[in-house]
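Worked example 2:
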Amino acid sequence: ELRRRASPWQRNLGYPLAMLGLLALTGISVLIVCFHVLELLLDDAAMPRGIQDASLGQVSFSIFGTFGAALQVILIFYLMLSSVVGFYSSPLFTRLLPERQDTPLTKIIGNCMSLLVLSSALPVFSRTLGITRFDLLGDFGRFNWLGNFYIVFLYNMGFAVLTTLCLVKRVTRAVQEELIRAFGEDG
């Protein structure tokens, strides 16, 4: 119903641009993770351990300078939003979705707790995937498992493979549906 009420500009320009933006952000994050996997295989310094004696402003956290830092921020926000959307669309947590002007206090507390856990895991998540090396003053590099090559490598490979499979499945399904709709009506 929202699509029918949307203006032609939204339907023909806004939605496709939003989908291309999401596709680009997903592709960029997968490329960064694949690059990080190669770094892990070639150099031990790519492990997401803490940076010793690195004070903010004196060490560049991106090899591409300001553009790279802005890209990291955009990707971290994208990962945050996709984590929240993925959390609330899982069958186990769909009941936790708030309802407009009819949400009980226990559901509000459950939502706050869930968002707190997701936001606390985001720095470790983005650091383990190699999207950023910034510690966010939490010294998340001190976790012992972040020094284990196999865990970090498998985590990165799992993210890259599963995200690519999800992306291919989503895009090819949409293309298949459009082709069936376009050629199915004539045949």
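Residues 149-184 form the longest helix (36 residues). The chain is about 65% helix and 0% strand.
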